[in-house]
Amino acid sequence: MNDIIDEILATAKRNKLRTALTGFSVAWGIFMIIFLLGAGNGLINAQMEQSARFMDNSMMVGGGTTTKAYQGMQEGRDIQLNDKDINVTTNEYHDIIDEVGATIQQGGNIVSLGENYISTQMQGVYPNEIRINKKEMLCGRFINDIDIQERRKVIVMGSDDAKELWNKEMSDFVGQHVNVGKMAFQVVGIYKSDKSGRNASIYTPFTTFRTIYNKGDKTDRIAFSFHGLATEKANEDFESNYRARVNGNHHADPDDEGALWIWNRFTQSMQMNTGIGIIQTALWIIGLFTLLSGIVGVSNIMLITVKERTREFGIRKAIGATPWSILKLIIIESVIITTFFGYVGMLLGVAANEYMDATIGHTTVNSGVFEATMFLNPTVGIDVCIEATLVMIIAGTLAGLIPARKAAKIRPIEALRAE
After folding, report:
1. What is the pLDDT of residues 35-68, one digit of tens each?
2. Residue 234, exposed/middle/buried by CB under 10 A (0-12, 13-18, 19+)?
3. Residue 278: CA atoms inside 13 Å, Cβ hemisphere, count?
4. Which pTM does this prediction carry?
5. Secondary structure (3-state) at 203
6. How many other CB atoms are there within 10 angstroms of residue 269's CB atom?
7. Angle, helices 2-14/323-360, rounded to nearest 10 degrees
8. How many CB atoms lie within 10 A of CB 92?
9. Are 293 and 72 in contact (CB under 8 A)?
């Protein structure tokens, strides 16, 4: 075996440029597939982080503006949701809908503690807000059912706003009273501000908000989780039925999509997963074609090697060399070149991804109002790196097999006549 390796190394030294170019094509193929997959994962991970901020199987529903005349009423009417819509959602769709909540809001609220104050938006919410929009509590608790029933004057604040009012230990802020306008509210919890721009700065019980601001039976949005809608078709059918039913409460055309907007996060998630699958497939196809160029390079160099060493192989067979010994020589040379340069390409690809992760791996866009992650953790698992390298090694071996079989079949008399 050592003799074979020494012979292969001697051949490589005699043909340095050819070996180097072949090795480059192999290393480049591995490098590109790892780099492309890493960059693609950076974009995909950022999108996954954004979508992970809310519950997949949930919907948000809000009133819009009618776009069709109906029952003698003109188009352009604003639709305001109310308790009747909440009751329809809760009672008529209980076989699909799990938990119903609602949200109502008002901006420009001055929240103060001593000399410190902030101007922010207040939302009246139900307890399911923490699950549907996935609030991470840092200390204290969120709004609960007793708060709703007793219309308690309690609030839950974002960590950024809490720091503006309280410069001591955050947990000590829980239980303190702050003024919202001229009314005192007790702080019962602090949640982590996520910088996305979706967060209301302060939450209070839905019933408390309605009472304080005299909102009657009105609501801005209805939020609910659901189950049993596994396909896009099932979701579309539910949305159409639900829209028609709620539109009927407001004398709007059952098919008027402008009268009621529905944000179905489940179908959005399915569409995003489909898009991610397409991106990953495209990256793999591009990467595999890049690998193919390396495989072709290995096959070509083996063909050239066989042609240049035809006389040598003829002499070997004339003095007793078996076809297998010649076949083995060519295949081992192909495996060594592919393995060595494939490993180099894998290391370079991993290094490039790590550098990309260290420099732009947590890229965000900050508009001043919200902050969104655009690129996150652009790396590839070591299992994918090893699999890509193994694919190249196996393909390189198969690529060397064709010229190796040709060399093994050379008849000594024909080989000795070769130029």
Report:
1. 888 888 888 888 777 777 788 899 999 999 999 9
2. middle
3. 6
4. 0.73
5. strand
6. 18
7. 70
8. 13
9. no
